[in-house]
Amino acid sequence: MRQWFVSLIVAFQFLTRLPIPVQVEYDKRYVSRSVLFYPVVGFVIGSILYLALVVLSSRAAPLDAAVLLLIWTLLTGGLHLDGLMDTAGG
Q1: Coil, strand or helix: which one is 11?
Q2: What is the DSSP string of 21-79?
Q3: 40: Cβ–Cβ under 8 A, 6 or more apart, which residues?
Q4: For residue 39, what are the domain limits?
Q5: How far is it, in rounded angstroms, from Cα 46 to Cα 41?
Q6: 14 exposure class (CB count in 10 Å sphere: 0-12, 13-18, 19+)
Q7: DSSP result, 26-39
Q8: Domain count, the chain
Q9: Spatial distance between the Cα atoms of 83 and 73, rounded to a whole number of angstroms
Q10: Alpha carbon distance 38, 41 (integer Å)
């Protein structure tokens, strides 16, 4: 059970910038198992963004979109934007 929990922590630490105050050993087993938890991390990020949208919901949709993009970038550290820029550069 501990191995799965460590793999979940590794997934959160790799895909987000959320402060998780737990030190884990990055072992090949944990990193390979962490892939199973990527949808969970995506669900948490999506839930945070949805809650932000509900709070922001105003008549200025472009402003809401810009704020959500900023929150998303801060949550992930720009991980997905880096992939988009690499694709555009290629």
Answers
A1: helix
A2: -------HHHHHHHGGGHHHHHHHHHHHHHHHHHHH--S-HHHHHHHHHHHHHHHHTTH
A3: 8, 11
A4: 2-89
A5: 9
A6: middle
A7: --HHHHHHHGGGHH
A8: 1
A9: 12
A10: 5
Longest Cα pair distance anywhere in the chain, in angstroms? Answer: 48
Cβ neighbors of 63 (< 8 A, separation 6 or more) are none
- The residue type of 87 is T
Name the percent of the chain lying above pLDDT 70. 100
Q: Read off the pLDDT of residues 1-38 as tens digits, 9 standing for 90 and up.
A: 889 999 999 999 999 999 998 988 888 999 999 999 99
| Rg (the chain; Cα; Å) | 16
Name the token pair of 35. Answer: 């892939």
Consecutive H or E run containing 23: none
**DSSP letter (8 states) at residue 85:** H
